[in-house]
């Protein structure tokens, strides 16, 4: 068996087909009384030929499995941006490859804006159906479409909450598909909760029901000019573009993701797999 590729831990400019680096963040929260939790995050794959082909997804799956994280999160945008020069890959083979991810506490996913807007099935059915959502059914990956799941860990438990995309119909100037109150409905007051939301902008709402939000969407701006990320797709500019963002006792981790939107180019913002360690204290 070929060993999984070794993840680069250093910062470097990215070539178009460079293998993702590994970025690590530590979140210390005084309300976390469970054992330390490790979360691997793989965001914004935008699977397509030639930029992120299925063979590359397979290598990423092997590398993530080798990290031995407790939990694996996939915060959306599996499909190609149709403005990107390349050939799209259907949802079914993408989810088939990702179905080989393994973690003791499971693998969970939410949909991103491109999973809706660039899904032929969604557009043909006026967003009544979605090819990624249908591929996730029965895959072993938990699809958290505005819902929460309780996860036991070290004799206690926490809640993982998932939002559907906030920008799924932005092109049509229509509201997104996220429903925060539905998503948090099952979570007891005061219970430790982690939110997975494709777009980071919800963090500005100040919702204290989750102490940690994990997002993608921005690609780190896809261009990082000494910390200036002018291409960041956010209403808040570069404020939520990348990395560990804090607001009092709340934390957000924004992954730069794997793939591309618009142009197949990353300038000083390499693709990345993210490892988050949640611990008590803070």
From TrEMBL:
Coiled coil: none annotated. InterPro entries: Calcineurin-like_PHP, Metallo-depent_PP-like, Metallophosphoesterase_sf. It comes from the Bacteria. Keywords: Hydrolase, Metal-binding. GO terms for molecular function: metal ion binding; UDP-2,3-diacylglucosamine hydrolase activity. The keyword Hydrolase applies. Residues 38-220 form the Calcineurin-like phosphoesterase domain. GO terms for biological process: lipid A biosynthetic process. GO terms for cellular component: membrane. PANTHER family: PHOSPHODIESTERASE YAEI, TRANSMEMBRANE PROTEIN WITH METALLOPHOSPHOESTERASE DOMAIN-RELATED. This is Calcineurin-like phosphoesterase domain-containing protein. It comes from Albidovulum denitrificans.
């Amino acid at each position: 068996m070929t060993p999984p590729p070794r993840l680069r831990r250093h910062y470097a400019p990215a070539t178009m087909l460079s293998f993702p680096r590994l970025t690590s963040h530590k979140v210390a929260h005084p309300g976390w009384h469970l054992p330390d939790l490790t979360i691997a995050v793989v965001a914004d794959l935008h699977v397509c030929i030639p930029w992120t082909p299925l063979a590359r997804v397979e290598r990423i799956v092997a590398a993530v499995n080798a990290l031995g994280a407790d939990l694996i999160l996939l915060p959306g945008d599996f499909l190609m941006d149709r403005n990107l020069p390349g050939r799209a890959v259907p949802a079914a083979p993408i989810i088939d490859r990702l179905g080989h991810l393994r973690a003791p506490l499971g693998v969970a996913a939410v949909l991103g804006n491109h999973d809706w807007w660039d899904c032929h099935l969604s557009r043909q059915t006026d967003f009544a159906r979605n090819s990624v959502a249908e591929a996730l059914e029965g895959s072993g990956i938990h699809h958290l479409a505005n819902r929460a799941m309780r996860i036991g860990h070290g004799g206690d438990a926490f809640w993982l909450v998932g939002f559907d995309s906030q920008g799924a119909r932005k092109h049509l100037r229509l509201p997104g598909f996220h429903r925060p109150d539905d998503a948090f409905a099952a979570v007891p007051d005061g219970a430790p909760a982690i939110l997975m939301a494709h777009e980071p902008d919800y963090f500005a709402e100040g919702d204290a029901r989750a102490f940690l939000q994990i997002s993608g969407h921005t690609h780190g701006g896809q261009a990082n000019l000494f910390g200036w990320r002018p291409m960041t797709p956010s209403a808040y500019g570069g404020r939520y573009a990348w990395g560990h963002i804090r607001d009092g006792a709340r934390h957000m981790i924004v992954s730069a993701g794997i793939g591309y939107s618009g142009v197949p180019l990353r300038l000083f913002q390499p693709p990345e797999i993210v490892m988050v360690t949640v611990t008590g204290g803070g």
